[in-house]
Design the sequence.
């Protein structure tokens, strides 16, 4: 069986489209998105009247003449995983003064994009001999699950064990505590219980078991992120990475020894590592550039995964 | 679509609403980036060593070569800052070249420039350790045998092993510990430079001649100032000599010192926008310009206090092994320490300045291990090359650096068939790799327009041409000029046939590994072409 795994596309339209095409491209039987589908920022495109608009992306102000310039700009924003929305100067003042309204707008736009993506997936994957799994990650709001669960050609993997071609895939997108207080994070003991609840449902032998756990195992080399100070600034110019993965994830892998463990969460920590007999992969993420980083893995039920490639597509 | 920099002036309008999501952090400190870049363009270890080569280009112009090449290399800082802003987290030259020019070219240039050639830097580091630290300390503590020992093959070999072991320990301790260690060394090293500055500033040339004639014969058995001056005499001109030919010809030597500002570049974190791009330029370019300015000040002080004719003459006599030469590498730190008639104070000066070496030492393996990791993750190297022990030690990558470095250090120490001169390719090979990145950067807006146009650097243009292209082209020019000089001019000691054959072998080894790996992976059923093949988005 060949599977393709990608993760942390954070709202990037182009990455989602590439993900949907990855099955054909890599001749995979299964494609898995490991979490964090939703983006991190809203970009207002402000109507100045008279067909003039302006917006700021990456601290560069763009003056836009007419919708023929607005639309490509919005596509560029979507490509980076952000959410463009058209607004007026008055509405901007209101939004800036009202956090609750901004949060609601954020949620609405995030969900809307997930709905669009799922609709696109249902259309694109129709008739393909391919299974597609999505397991929302710690940055994804809970409503995402419902949207995915209602899809026709995409299967929700969160908290489940699913059978795929003689293998079993056990998944969760929850992570240990982060400095950002995200949707799906909890203390290590609770995370351990959550993983145990899923892993204990596995009936396959370890050679036929796959874990898809969004958070990488602690100290595996797949979990190194720049150290932050109390003001959330990168210490030592960002040159001082520290392990931030989950000990619960590591313990679960060491205990169950699945043949393959798929992770994400730490974008800059692309790589692979072995924990006992388990091949752990974090393909990393370059969603801002529209690059879909992933992993193609061939499984034959042998003692160890021997064939895999980390891709940049 | 027109783009204008900056926030609008008429109202406090947010350009972006960010939610609390993993990885969104506040910017890093420019000062931190500056510190690490300053360590890479290391005035004490690399600069003073490079300046001592000036007599090989008797056309004169050292001061201006330092100043002008330093100023010009701001284009390098812009090039690398642009690449980082456009493709953050990518991991440096290997990934940038791979993504723009292809995986094979990326591997060959990165393997030769960031892996194989770094084996050869180990004895070069060791040589600097000997002439700036072990040799002077041996002299200060009165260990006469030590002075000659560190200049002998066994001394160089032992120092090489110490450098390799020290670098391995620093890498094994992890980046966080190394970053902290480097910062301590930076501040301590600054104190050392400040002491040296004051000593050179407050003393006159006659004070120095007197101090030199008191201390150098005593510590090293050196002849007098006047004898060494006569022994190394050539037409040095004066410190401000603006000799066009000399300045240009000295630039390839100066690259040994100032080509490395990009080593301090931050590759982590989520790039928020144009300010990060500018911050990287400030950190790298700032460190480059500040180090250049400090270097210029010290050269002026050398001229004032040592005498420009003596400083260059002593270097000339040392490298030429002339009768009446100083008998030790004329290390300006040591010569400044001569002003103290007290071994403890001399030791303190050398000790503080030595922090520039110890904080820099880990860099000989650090970047190499990253390249080894990246190529292993691309399945070019076997999986064990990226293996990390439970304590975080990159055992495979370290072995790939450490094991070959030791026999190479032995060849260097015993100098079989002029091996030592071949290692002068050390800068040349990395320059070729940087040229690969510069070419990648120059064509990046056309090769990867979708990434370029959505990056924070897309708005920066010069006469309608992308800034990254302009900067990378100008950076390429200095690299091409230096490569041409290294190729044609004997005075850089790299253009003999043996040297080029050796150099070619390194590239052949990289090509062999790449194609061997592709064949091997093919037999395993792995298509390596998959690694970089783009997935259609539509």
Sequence:
């Amino acid at each position: 069986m060949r599977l393709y795994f990608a993760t942390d596309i954070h709202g990037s339209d182009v990455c989602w489209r590439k993900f949907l095409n990855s099955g054909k491209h890599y001749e995979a039987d299964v494609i898995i998105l490991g979490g964090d589908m939703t983006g991190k920022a809203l970009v207002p495109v402000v109507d100045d009247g008279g067909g003039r608009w302006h917006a700021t992306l990456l601290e560069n102000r763009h003056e836009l003449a007419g919708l023929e310039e607005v639309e490509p700009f919005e596509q560029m924003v979507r490509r980076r995983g952000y959410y463009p929305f058209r607004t007026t100067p008055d509405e901007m003042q209101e939004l800036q003064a009202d956090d609750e309204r901004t949060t609601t707008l954020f949620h609405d736009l995030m969900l809307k994009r997930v709905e669009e993506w799922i609709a696109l997936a249902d259309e694109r994957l129709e008739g393909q001999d391919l299974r597609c799994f999505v397991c929302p990650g710690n940055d994804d709001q809970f409503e995402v699950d419902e949207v995915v669960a209602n899809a026709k050609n995409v299967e929700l993997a969160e908290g489940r064990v699913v059978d795929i071609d003689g293998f079993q895939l056990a998944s969760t997108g929850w992570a240990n505590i982060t400095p950002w207080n995200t949707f799906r994070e909890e203390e290590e003991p609770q995370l351990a219980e959550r993983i145990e609840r899923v892993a204990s449902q596995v009936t396959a032998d370890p050679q036929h078991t796959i874990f898809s756990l969004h958070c990488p195992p602690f100290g595996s080399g797949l979990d190194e992120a720049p150290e932050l100070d109390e003001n959330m600034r990168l210490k030592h110019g960002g040159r001082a990475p520290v392990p931030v993965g989950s000990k619960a994830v590591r313990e679960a892998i060491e205990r169950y020894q699945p043949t393959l463990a798929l992770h994400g969460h730490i974008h800059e920590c692309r790589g692979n590592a072995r924990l006992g007999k388990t091949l752990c992969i974090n393909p990393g993420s370059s969603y801002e550039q529209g690059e879909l980083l992933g992993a193609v893995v061939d499984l034959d039920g042998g003692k160890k995964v021997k064939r895999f490639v980390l891709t940049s597509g | 679509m027109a783009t204008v920099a900056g926030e609008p002036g008429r109202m406090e309008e947010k350009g972006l609403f960010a939610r609390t999501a993993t990885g969104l952090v506040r910017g890093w400190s420019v000062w931190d980036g500056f510190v690490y870049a300053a360590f890479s363009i290391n005035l004490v270890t690399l600069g003073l060593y490079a300046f001592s080569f000036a007599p090989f280009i008797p056309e004169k112009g050292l001061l201006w070569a330092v100043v002008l090449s330093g100023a010009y290399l701001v284009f390098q800082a812009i090039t690398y800052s642009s690449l980082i802003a456009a493709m953050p987290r990518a991991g440096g030259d290997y990934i940038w070249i791979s993504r723009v020019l292809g995986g094979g070219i990326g591997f060959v240039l990165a393997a030769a420039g960031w892996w194989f050639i770094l084996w050869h830097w180990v004895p070069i580091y060791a040589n600097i350790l000997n002439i700036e630290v072990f040799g002077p300390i041996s002299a200060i503590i009165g260990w006469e045998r030590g002075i000659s020992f560190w200049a002998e093959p066994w001394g160089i070999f032992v120092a090489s092993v110490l450098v390799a072991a020290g670098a391995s320990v620093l890498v094994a301790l992890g980046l966080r510990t190394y970053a902290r260690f480097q910062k301590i060394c930076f501040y301590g090293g600054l104190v050392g430079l400040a002491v040296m500055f004051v000593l050179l500033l407050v003393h006159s040339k006659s004070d120095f001649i007197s101090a030199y004639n008191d201390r150098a014969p005593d510590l090293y058995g050196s002849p007098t100032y006047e004898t060494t001056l006569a022994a190394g005499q050539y037409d040095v001109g004066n410190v401000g000599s603006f000799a066009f030919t000399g300045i240009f010809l000295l630039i390839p030597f100066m690259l040994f010192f100032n080509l490395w500002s990009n080593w301090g570049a931050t590759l982590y974190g989520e790039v928020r926008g144009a300010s990060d791009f500018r911050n990287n330029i400030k950190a790298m370019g700032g460190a480059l310009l500040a180090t250049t300015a400090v270097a210029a000040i010290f050269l002026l002080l050398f001229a004032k206090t040592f005498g420009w004719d003596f400083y260059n003459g002593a270097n000339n006599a040392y490298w030429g092994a002339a009768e009446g030469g100083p008998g030790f590498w004329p290390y300006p730190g040591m010569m400044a320490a001569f002003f103290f008639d007290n071994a403890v104070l001399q030791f303190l000066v050398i000790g503080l300045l030595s922090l520039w070496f110890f904080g820099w030492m880990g860099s000989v393996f650090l970047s190499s291990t990253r390249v080894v990791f990246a190529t292993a993750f691309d399945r070019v190297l076997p999986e064990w090359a990226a293996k990390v022990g439970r304590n975080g030690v990159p055992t495979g990558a370290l072995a790939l650096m450490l094991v070959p470095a030791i026999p190479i250090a032995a060849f260097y120490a015993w100098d079989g068939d002029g091996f030592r001169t071949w290692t002068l390719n050390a800068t040349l090979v990395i320059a070729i790799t940087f040229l690969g990145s510069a070419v990648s950067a120059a064509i990046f807006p056309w090769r990867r327009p979708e990434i370029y146009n959505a990056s924070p650097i897309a708005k920066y243009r010069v006469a309608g041409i992308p800034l990254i292209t302009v900067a990378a082209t100008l950076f390429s020019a200095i690299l091409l000029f230096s490569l041409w000089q290294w190729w044609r001019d004997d005075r850089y000691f790299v253009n003999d046939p043996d040297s080029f054959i050796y150099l070619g072998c390194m590239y052949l080894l990289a090509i062999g590994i790449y194609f061997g790996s592709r064949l091997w992976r093919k037999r395993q059923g792995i298509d390596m072409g998959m690694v970089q093949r783009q997935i259609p988005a539509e």
Q: What stands out?
A: The longest strand of chain B covers residues 2-5. The longest helix of chain B spans residues 274-319. The mean pLDDT of chain B is 90. The CA atoms of residues 9 and 100 of chain B lie 38 Å apart.
